[in-house]
Amino acid sequence: MSGHVEKDAQTISPDMPAMFDGMKLAAVATVLYIIVRCLNLKSPTAAPEITCQDTALNRYLLKSCSILTKEYIPPLLWGKSGHFQTALYGKMGRVSSPHPCGMRLYLPMQDGATATFDLFEPLGDHLTGDDITMVICPGIGNHSEKHYIRTFVGYSQKQGYRCAVLNHLGALPNIELTSPRMFTYGCTWEFSAMVSYIKRAFPQTRLIVVGFSLGGNIVCKFLGENRANQEKVLCCVSVCQGYSALRAQETFLQWDRCRRLYNFLMADNMKKIILSHRGSLFGTRSRKMEIMDLSRLYTATSLMQIDDNIMSCTEYLKKFHGHDSLKEYYEKESCVHYIHNVNVPLLLVNSSDDPLVHESLLTIPRTLAEKKENVIFVLTLHGGHLGFFEGAVLFPQPLTWMDKVIVSYANAICQWQKQQPQCHQATNCTELKGKA
């Protein structure tokens, strides 16, 4: 019997190595295919898609900001993946971020809250010789100490810009809330207070308004809420915002591009911020009610659930903002209802592979740019959410495409205004056109 076994073994064994080699090759091929698909390596690089009207100013801007008409080339191995770009921004912010030196200011609000912002003076003269201040609103739960903000501020300072960066109410871990209120998607009170302070402290300065992600929604809503808010404003730049909080929250419940996972991660971060201020937000309620509120908050897995819980338990949204429902809250907090009132030059930047901003939301800025001559909509093929890293193969550069675009656009606007002396005789060019 043992002879038969040895004979069978001798018969089978020569074919086994070939079969295992074939399985190894198939496994390697599968892994490579997954890597290529996940990293989107076959995707080409391209210049951004630009939507705008054919005006003298827009032609000048596109000519002066050559970076907008050239290919955006992300790092070869991972830069074409919106997930990797977004993850690197979320985890690291930026590479080799500087540490700009500034001072923190505190502004008491009428409702008892205390707004804070950081002020950074320019490190040189502006190319026009004018006094220009960038008023900056960061993304959700962010502040001046975030790496991507530090990188942008450091670069802007070197270009001769003063920078004022809003710290979202409740976002700084070492600053306690002084009222039962923290930042929301579209509340412009703190940003307005910062802008008013800058106008009073530096009466000769002109403003460049910049908003990142949620900050983009806030700055566009701020400018569109009241025409007076556009006084002394040269231009506005919004990067990676979603334009409609209601429509965005609906897409956050979908699983395509792992949006539901991102929703969970952002919700987890929001819970940490809220719980760090639980004494200020929940302190006026009974112990029993506080436990019930916190239990609902702990179990929330989406931003919408958190917002619903916060509205019902603290009552501050209803009290201070007059919202009767979550839907109404999202509607009124969205810049989509105000952005058409913005008449200063407006640059809207988004990325096609941004996993947080659904492609359906991009019809808002595209349609706006088609209808209004002051708007330029720039859509890149790659970049993720606030990523826009550049680099050769693996390692990204400290400065991103996004940083360069904002400063380049701001420089071009300042030079254009310098060449238009009649604009300085009025509050801004838009006001002059209205009087003509």
Structure description:
With 436 residues, the chain is an alpha/beta fold. It has helices at 2-12, 16-39, 56-64, 82-92, 147-158, 189-201, 214-225, 245-251, 259-276, 278-282, 287-299, 303-314, 316-321, 326-332, 363-371, 401-418, 429-435, and strands at residues 49-51, 103-108, 114-120, 132-137, 162-167, 206-212, 233-239, 346-351, 375-380. The protein has a nine-stranded mixed beta sheet with strand order 1-9-8-7-6-4-5-3-2, with helices on both faces. A hairpin with a 5-residue loop joins strand 2 and strand 3 (114-120). The termini are far apart. Residues 423-436 have low confidence and may be disordered.
Quickly describe the structure.
With 436 residues, this protein is an alpha/beta fold. It has helices at residues 2-12, 16-39, 56-64, 82-92, 147-158, 189-201, 214-225, 245-251, 259-276, 278-282, 287-299, 303-314, 316-321, 326-332, 363-371, 401-418, 429-435, and strands at 49-51, 103-108, 114-120, 132-137, 162-167, 206-212, 233-239, 346-351, 375-380. The chain is globular.
Work out the number of β strands.
9
What is the 3D shape? globular
The oligomeric state of the chains shown is: single chain
Tell me about the biggest sheet? 9 strands, mixed
Distance between the termini: 108 Å
Strand order of the largest sheet: 1-9-8-7-6-4-5-3-2
Q: What is the mean predicted local confidence, pLDDT?
A: 86
Count the DSSP helices. Answer: 17
Low-confidence stretches: 423-436
Helix content: 40-55%
Report the β-strand fraction as a percent range. 5-15%
Order of helices and strands: HHEHHEEEHEHEHEHHHHHHHEHEHH
What class, by secondary structure content? alpha/beta
| Rg computed from alpha carbons, rounded to a whole number of angstroms | 25 Å
